[in-house]
Amino acid sequence: MLIKTPAKSTCKEHQVTDETVYKQRRQIIKSMGFLGAASLLQSTQVSAFSLFGDDEPEKFVTRPLRFSPADKYQSKDIVTPEEKVISYNNFYEFGTGKADPAENAQSFNVNPWDLTINGLVDKPISLGYEDLYKKLTLEERIYRLRCVEAWSMVIPWVGFSLADLIKLAKPLSSAKYVAFETLYDPKQMPGQRNRFAGGGIDYPYVEGLTIEEATHPLAFLAVGLYGKTLPPQNGAPIRLVVPWKYGFKSIKSITNIRLTDKKPPTTWNMLASNEYGFYANVNPKVDHPRWSQASERRITSGGLFNTSRIPTQMFNGYDEVAPLYASLDLKRNY
Predict the structure, then answer these.
(1) Model confidence over 184-211: pLDDT tens digits?
(2) How far is 296 from 77, CA to CA, in rounded Å?
(3) Phi first, then psi: what are they for 217, rounded to 5°?
(4) What rounded mean pLDDT belongs to the chain?
(5) Are 249 and 239 in contact (CB under 8 A)?
(6) What is the pLDDT of residues 98-151, one digit of tens each?
(7) 3-state secondary structure 140-164
(8) How far is CA 250 from CA 219, 239, 267, 280, 326, in A?
(9) Is 151 left (phi over 0), alpha (psi -120 to 50) or beta?
């Protein structure tokens, strides 16, 4: 399948990362111990570091992440500064505030880890922590991320195609959907211990895609960003990235992927079905019941609450997925 390169956008002056932000980033990286981290744009071999300090050696990760930049997946948009991507998150397992995950997730232990792929497959798979980096070829993909709350980012992920992983499990022809489940560990995740702190969600967090969506070339499993291992607040050690859908579909800290013949339940749809549909495709013509989806606040080098907005694109600009929904009314199937 031919993957279109998104059209080059016209960037205004305030959208360009300035030199001060860049220098601050380098100083922050140095102060946190990220010594020797290479630029994604300069090399295909990048040093990967976790955000855990070296005073916790059992959790500290320093290993080369070898991956090949996939040119056909590179966005022409200005990449969001790393500090904002790792500090402004929705991950209710660690609190409902945007800064809560970065504050509350730093002791989150991701090694050992067990990711299972089962259900309607001929060859069930179990992947340990090391397998997440070694089982499949890693690549870089720069994708737009559009939150249902009408803000957006542009993030350089490192990971592998979801379709490639599903293929290893040899799915049966009866498989129609793919269900995902987040780790359930109330001891480590304060939002799972307290219903108020966790936003009223019944955990574990669950999500789902059709088999056609899950095997589309754009569907991605990320194990890193900015050439480093995935920070805990961003969904370590492995998360889904579905760039044409609202961000809540891109489930974090996945422990189980199950192929099924029935549409799986999804967390936000169960919580408020009139607001969050199963498909959740980015669609500027279908508003959220409480706000417009026609435009978005792109988080770049300015303040997090920069009032400038850009028009939202159908499917977040990834028009190549449109054939997946040719027979659906996307206003009814939101």
Answers:
(1) 999 999 999 998 999 999 999 999 999 9
(2) 14
(3) -55, -25
(4) 83
(5) no
(6) 999 999 999 999 999 999 999 999 999 999 999 999 999 999 999 999 999 999
(7) EEEEEEECCCCEEEEEEEEEEEHHH
(8) 10, 7, 12, 11, 23
(9) beta
Distance CA 135, CA 8 (A): 34
Q: Distance from first CA to last CA of the chain, Å, rounded?
A: 26
Q: What is the secondary structure of 91-145 as a DSSP string?
A: -GGG-SSTTHHHHHSTT---SS-EEEEEESBSS-EEEETTHHHHSS-EEEEEEEE
The one-letter code for the residue type at 170 is: K
Give the number of residues written for the chain: 334
With residue 256 as reference, give the H or E element that holds it.
strand 254-260
pTM of the model: 0.82
Q: pLDDT tens for residues 28-74?
A: 333 333 222 222 222 222 333 333 333 333 333 335 567 888 888 99
Tokens of 197: 């702190």
Tokens 């422990």 correspond to what residue? 255
* 306 SS3 class: coil
- Residue 286: count other Cβ atoms within 10 Å of its Cβ: 15
Calpha distance 196→184 (Å, rounded): 17
**Contact assessment for residue 280 and residue 334, using Cβ atoms and an 8 Å cutoff:** yes
317: left (phi over 0), alpha (psi -120 to 50) or beta: left
Residue among 223, 232, 192 nearest 103 (CA): 232
Taking the C-alpha atoms of residue 104 and residue 252, their distance in angstroms, rounded to an integer, is 15
CA 177, distance to chain mean position in Å, is 19
Helices H, strands E: what count in the chain? 8, 14
User: Closest by alpha carbon to 101, among 290, 262, 217, 230?
Assistant: 230
Q: What is the pLDDT of residues 215-265, one digit of tens each?
A: 999 999 999 999 889 999 999 999 999 999 999 999 999 999 999 999 999
